[in-house]
Amino acid sequence: VIDRILIVGASQAGLQVAVSLRELGFTGSIALVGDETHAPYQRPPLSKAYLAGKATVETLSLRTPEFYTEHGIELLTGTRVTALDLDAGKATAERGEQLGFDQVALTTGAQVRRLKVPGADLAGVVYLRDLTDADHLAALMPAARSVVVVGGGFIGLEAAAVARAAGKDVTVVETAPRLIARAVAPLVSDFYREAHERRGTRILLDRSVASLTAADGRVTAANLDDGTTLAADLVVVGIGVDARTELAAAAGLTVDRGVVVDPHARTSDPRVVAAGDCTVLPHPAAPGQLIRLESVQNAVDQSRVAAATLLGQQAVYDAVPWFWSDQDDLKLQIAGLSMGYDHVVVRGDTEKERFSALYYRDRRLIAADSVNRAPDYMVVRRALAAGHTIPAELATNTDVSLKSLLRP
Ligand code: APR
Q1: What residues pair up with 243 in beta bridges, in sequence order?
Q2: Residue with the nearest Cα to atom 35 of ligand 1?
Q3: Position 1 pLDDT exceeds 90
Q4: For labelling alongside 180, which of 86, 91, 196, 301 has CA 20 to 30 A away?
Q5: Does ligand 1 have an atom closer than 6 angstroms to the CB of 239?
Q6: pLDDT tens across 345-383, in order?
Q7: 210 C-alpha to ligand 1 centroid (Å)
Q8: Ligand 1 pocket member 155 (CB < 6 A)
């Protein structure tokens, strides 16, 4: 019998494991342990509505305090688990606390990559991953005039959009030759560059920050590798995240850019499952690879599977990936995985900031990025879940509904 389940990491994935365990009828004890001081909250708004002052801590919270007591979930915040002894069934936390368990779920998430240049530790250089980061950034924003954003991925562009909308002078510095290169096709990258430039944000590609200059211990300028100097009283760094795998690795689990799991969210040790940003996983949309999916969707869907696996129930993770990013009034929604595409078609009008990019591999639809075209996104998401496709040559005609074009 499994009496005690320990969940390490109290964010979206960890909470979902706990909730799913109860939904599936588990009556044993559940300890949900996290090193952040807040109870589980939504992270995506931190770089969007929360940073813009349009959401409060209360609205971010995923569950009320009562929820945890009512469902018998022992939530331990501000507690970092430092070691796992799987054979002894014991975890040790930072202040020496011991936690016994029969099985473990690792939902340790990801951590930001740090900028490694001279001056990176100065006051005024900030990251954006957790609520503490967001509060820090929000506190510095009002007085800032010149904001340099390092990294033109999702976090960088979302933060840039908020800063620009607040009237700041904003420059994004991206090392790659295009924006959001990890996730979207070149035409979508180009669209985002132009859209941000139209809003008055400077976008510098193929450029990196070589050092940061200070006065009185605070950042005042960013010096780029091409010799350019940008005034900067606030530097926001969004250069990607790495899976937090240290605990898994120390416990002897297989790690490869993330905690390696199978389609059942099981790690290399049968007593341990893992889910969310900390994992690398096999997925039917990326045959033959282990991929990382950094998203709420993955945290929730993979955690449901992990909970079932802990209880010895058969469950397989094959949900269609989806993702979103809000930048000013541009609502990007992504369905599916575009990696390995060989053809892209555009439906709608990039000039009017309302279009979808549909991705194909071997003539079959595999993904879509929709900007301000939510219905397209919904149709594609459902199509992918049902194993349907949409002929590329017909998809570009916006007079015809996408739904009417679905084919087996
Ligand atoms: N200088 C400038 N740009 C850099 C540097 C650097 N030294 N190093 C990396 N970059 C760029 C990358 O080329 C990439 O475009 O930073 C960008 C990072 O983008 P993402 O990988 O999307 O990561 P980030 O924007 O930090 O988002 C982190 O938050 O919103 C979620 O899904 C998102 O899980 C992701 C996380």
Answers
A1: 110
A2: 294
A3: no
A4: 301
A5: yes
A6: 999 999 999 999 999 999 999 999 999 999 999 999 999
A7: 17
A8: yes
Q: Cα angle at 11 between 9 and 16, to 5 degrees?
A: 95
Confidence (pLDDT) at 2: 77
Residue 158 contacts residue 255 (beta carbons within 8 Å): no
| Cα–Cα distance, 283 to 286 (Å, whole number) | 5
Query: Does the C-beta of 240 come closer than 6 Å to ligand 1?
Result: yes
Extended strands (E) in 226-342: 229-231, 234-237, 241-243, 259-260, 272-274, 279-280, 322-327, 330-336
What is the predicted pLDDT for the residue at 154?
A: 98
Residues in the chain: 408
Cβ–ligand 1 distance for 241 under 6 Å, the answer: yes
Residue pointed to by tokens 């690879």: 289
Q: What proportion of the chain, given as a percentage, has pLDDT over 90?
A: 99
CA–centroid distance, residue 126 to ligand 1 (Å): 14
Are the C-beta atoms of residues 234 and 246 closer than 8 Å to each other?
A: no
Question: Is the beta carbon of 175 within 6 A of some atom in ligand 1?
Answer: yes
